[in-house]
Amino acid sequence: MSKPKLGVFKFASCDGCQLSLLSAEDQLLELAGAVEIGYFLEATSKIAPGPYDIALVEGSITTPHDVERIQQVRRDCKFLITIGACATAGGIQALRNWADCDEFVQAVYASPQFISTLATSTAIADHVSVDFELRGCPINQYQLIEVIGSLLAGRRPRTRVHSVCLECKRRGTVCVMVAQGTACLGPVTQAGCNAICPSFNRGCYGCHGPAAQPNLVSITNQFASDGVPKEQIVRSLRSFNGYAPEFRVEGDRLDASQESGE
Amino acid sequence: MTQRTIKVNAMTRVEGEGGLYLKLRGNVVEEIRLEIYEPPRFFEAFLRGRPLEEVPDITARICGICPVAYQMSSIHALESALGMTISPEIRKLRRLLYCGEWIESHALHVYLLNAPDFLGYDSGLDMAAEYPDEVNRGLRMKKHGNQILEALGGRAIHPINVAVGGFYRCPRRDELQRLIPDLQWCLDAAIETTRWVATFDFPNFQSDYQLVSLSHDDEYPMNEGRIATSLGESIAVSDFENEFEERQVAHSTALHSLRKKTGAAYFLGPLARVGLNTDRLSPTAKRLADEVGITWPCYNPFQSIVARSLELVHAFEEALAILREYQPARPAKINYEIQSGEGCAATEAPRGLLYHRYHFDDDGKIAEAKIVPPTSQNQPQIESDLRRWVTQILTDDDAATARKCENLVRCYDPCISCSTHFLKLKVDRV
User: Fold this and answer.
1) Which keywords has UniProt assigned to this entry (chain A) (predicted)?
2) pLDDT tens, position by position, A158-205
3) B166 CB near a chain A CB, below 8 Å?
């Protein structure tokens, strides 16, 4: 039987999530033996044409050309898996979605007319159907290996959708919000990082995106009653996963109430 | 006279996306462009209005391969603006973090991105079939570099533990010291790596480069110093923008940086660092630099792989020295008072000098940010190299010409994702 063909595609991003694959040093050669790597520009000069059995897609859609390219990737693959906050939520570059992008171009480039970019940075699922989304900025390499391994075995990936809080409890980390009054997005953020930030004495900043059914209003009310200024709460929601629907809706609600002086 | 165009639509084994375009009339190069079409992400624009303490977490996302470099340059610039002096213990831990990043990035580049060019493979993974011991050696060094980053930074990609003023928490002694046995193995592996890559067949290709790197009286440059050049200059980092200037070119989303007064291109990265700081290498790395039969400074870009390997040796040796005497810093983070300020800093990313400048208001919110990554600085030099290299390797076969051009570009380890505010070869034969 022929090996499943893997493609790794990149859109606007920092390369960190595809690097997670190369950072799985102990499994890398085994994995490379189990699949045919058809397209993975960062790792190999050998390029095989599609179709691909599995496409891993990193990065968000920010240019007219990329809108067309993702359609082609979708046509060329059986399973399309997005990896990381850029591909699943637009990434940090989605901060432009609340700003004037022309002004951003002018702030960075002396000759803005040479720059072709969209006014928005959007998730892959906003453009094509996605079979599985792996969250994180960056993704966790063990989750990535689980996702690829499960597809090769023909079963659903076992990744966590509960909140970071459970990982904290499992590690035995003392709650930074309860014990120190540090604002922490752990209760509404999807697990997968192994709750690193609280173990280093800081609050979770939401880099794995929203957990399943998060109660954003409840946590922002808690932050407010702990004395965190509204403007700061909005900013904390608008970061690496700011354009994920749950974070976006609550951030926009608070922003509007701030402007109306409520 | 025949016209000919050679194009590489997407460069491989580099970080990020870009291409090459070559236009030839006969064997004369009419036009050569390194085309960086990585979409712009506008970090300098959206940093404005964010509080200064968020800057290291955000700038880390410029690059997944060298996030520490972005964190370190931004933190040093912000601390300079706040007039802060950090403790020697925190300073040492920051060097340890930088050692971890150099190891992870250099091992990746030497074994998976660059060595396949010298041995005739499409990838490090293909190379593993005939060179299993070597590739496994590279992967193991990379893994232990990542473990330094994880122990100190929380995770290898986008570490979470660095803060303006120091660290959120200093690791316990046992969390760091348990890395020592693996790193001792790695030091030997890095020595073998250097001897191995020094036996590669290097093209006879030299350029009269202007080498540029940080330089420091007492140490191998990583996170501070003055800017040294092979012209014998010593430039304060605060004079960076008087001496180096970014210009926009139509064919690239990365800006091009040149010497401001002369318009000259310059050369950054391990070859420049080793060349300008040979005497500051760790004792084992210094002995090896003499042993490998290269005269330093070296002006053959293909021998960057040797310099990069020497830096692996240095990084393991320095990391071991720091770990052996490690005691957690108290406090882990030095407090500061928010006030308006402006400051700049440069550190040595794995690919070369990385400059940041920030201006923030009374509330500590960023008013202006300027980030000059190593690849935008190397880009004019890469184009200038290609112009000369292509005449030396021009064959009738466009694919072979294109591949040899890519080989040269990869020696620079360009980080395309980083440089946008970078590769495909396209050759027009006219």
Assistant:
1) Homeobox, Oxidoreductase
2) 998 999 999 999 999 999 999 999 999 999 999 999 999 999 999 999
3) no
Residues A52 and A121 in one domain: yes
Distance from CA of A22 to the nearest CA of B (A): 8
Examine the fold and report which residue of A102, A125, A153 is the final residue of a domain before the chain moves on: A153
Helix axes B132-153, B180-197, angle to 10 degrees: 140
Every domain of chain B and the residues it spans: 43-412
ipTM, 2 dp: 0.95
Please indicate, yes or no, if residue A205 is contained in any of the structural domains: yes
Same-domain check for residues A85 and A107:
yes
Residues of A in contact with B67 (CB under 8 A): 14, 16
Contact: B12, A41; criterion CB under 8 Å: yes
Choose among B16, B146, B250: nearest Cβ to A15.
B16
Rounded to a whole number of angstroms, the distance from the CA of B267 to the nearest CA of chain A is 23
State percent of chain B over pLDDT 70.
92
The tokens describing B53, both together, are: 């303490």
What CATH number was assigned to the domain covering residues B43-412? 1.10.645.10
Identify whether A159 is part of a domain. no
Question: Does residue A27 share a domain with residue A148?
Answer: yes
Same domain? For A15 and A98 the reply is: yes
Residue A92 inside a domain? The answer is yes
The count of domains in chain A is: 2
Q: Are residues A127 and A178 in the same domain?
A: no
Out of A19, A95, A205, name the one closest to residue B64 (CB): A19
CATH code assigned at A119? 3.40.50.700
Q: Is pLDDT of B423 > 50?
A: no
Question: Are B61 and A92 within 8 A, CB to CB?
Answer: yes
Tokens of B9: 């639509």
Q: Is B344 a known ligand-binding residue?
A: no
**pLDDT tens-place string over residues B186-205:** 999 999 999 999 999 999 99
CB contact under 8 A, B40 and A46: no
Confidence of residue B422 (pLDDT cuts 50, 70, 90): very low
Whether B45 sits inside 8 A of A19 (CB atoms) is no
Do the Cβ atoms of B206 and B299 come closer than 8 Å?
yes
Task: Find chain A residues with C-beta within 8 A of B253's C-beta.
Answer: 115
Q: Which two tokens stand for residue A218?
A: 């409840």
Could you say which of A97, A118, A153 is where a domain stops? A153
CB-CB neighbours of B68 under 10 Å: 32
Indicate whether A158 belongs to any domain.
no
Give the E-state strand segments of B27-133 in sequence order.
28-35
Question: Low-confidence residues of chain A, pLDDT below 50?
Answer: none
Measuring CA to CA, which residue among B378, B91, B81, B377 is closest to residue B238? B81
Whole-number pLDDT of residue B415: 80
Between B61, B65, B125, which is nearest A32 by CB? B125
A134 and A193 inside one domain: no
Note whether B124 contacts A: Cβ–Cβ < 8 A.
yes
Residue B400: which region, alpha, beta or left (left: phi > 0; alpha: psi -120 to 50)? alpha
Chain A residues with CB inside 8 Å of B44's CB? 107-108
Distance CA B123, CA B120 (A): 9
Pairing of the two strands B3-8 and A132-134: unpaired
* Residues of chain A contacting residue B365, judged by C-beta atoms under 8 Å apart: none
Does the CB of B420 have a partner CB in chain A at under 8 Å?
Answer: no
Mean pLDDT within B152-170: 97
**Residue span of the structural domain in which A41 resides:** 5-153
- Partner A contacted by B162 (CB < 8 A): no
Structure tokens, B146:
């990542």
pLDDT tens across B250-300, in order? 776 667 889 999 999 999 999 999 999 999 999 999 999 999 999 999 999
β-strands B244-247, B3-8: how paired? unpaired
